[in-house]
Amino acid sequence: QVQLVESGGGVVQPGKSLRLSCAASGFAFSSYGIHWVRQAPGKGLEWVAVIWFDGSNKYYADSVKGRFTISRDISKNTLYLQMNSLRAEDTAVYYCAREGWYYGSGSHAVLDNWGQGTLVTVSS
Amino acid sequence: DIQMTQSPSSLSASVGDRVTITCRASQGIRNDLGWYQQKPGKAPKRLIYAASSLLSGVPSRFSGSGSGTEFTLTISSLQPEDFATYYCLQHNSYPWTFGQGTKVDIK
Q1: Of chain A residues 61-120, which have a CB less than 8 A from chain B?
Q2: CA distance A67 to B2
């Protein structure tokens, strides 16, 4: 079955860096786009970044552009999120989610499988 | 960027009630919208894609409608397991954006 397992969260000081990982299994990792979505404590969901199925394109939320980098290692079936210059407002649970494509009145992307999340706390 | 305005932010309802949640996009997004359900401490779960198509395993009491800038999620007869927070998500253009969420709790 499809499984996504995030790791790498923890407590980090403002201005420092952290790298999150998302280990994928149960599907052809190289055939799917994968997203990062975060949720600050007690708040709603915020889309963070995506890497396309073929790795050709990456997009970011304005709030993280220039500070975060999404990447993947096909040989390890693992997605990464390199987070630099961290701020208090980056404190959140970070989820990775697989992008599936569904068809009906066009083609539509769905975040159809999610990991359990990893908590990042930015605090001095 | 496309802004998604979801309303209400919260509602109280009883088992068996009909519940409607609305999402408005700041510009037309065709039907490039999905709905997700999240329970406390859990990852979100996909419910609906293309604004109105139910995903596999989702009960038929859930339905979606809309196109362009206005969308609705309806739960025809609220069940105990439906008490959760619901989010819309547009995938028409990057950056993707979620609505602020609607928390459905027990009256």
Answers
A1: 61-62, 95, 97, 102, 104-106, 108-112, 114-117
A2: 22
| Cα–Cα distance list, A43 to A93, A115, B47 (Å) | 10, 18, 20
Pairs of residues, one from chain A and one from chain B, whose beta carbons lie less than 8 Å apart: 71
Backbone phi, psi, residue A42, to 5°: 70, 10
User: Per-residue confidence of chain B (107 residues) as pLDDT tens digits?
Assistant: 999 999 999 999 999 999 999 999 999 999 999 999 999 999 999 999 999 999 999 999 999 999 999 999 999 999 999 999 999 999 999 999 999 999 999 88
Chain B CB within 8 Å of residue A44 CB: yes
Q: What is the C-alpha to C-alpha distance for residues B51 and B71, in angstroms, rounded to an integer?
A: 7
Which residue is it, tokens 């993707």?
Answer: B96
Q: How distant, in Å, are the alpha carbons of A57, A68, A93, B38, B53 from that of A44? A: 26, 20, 11, 10, 24
List the single residue in B with minimal CA-CA distance to A114. B43
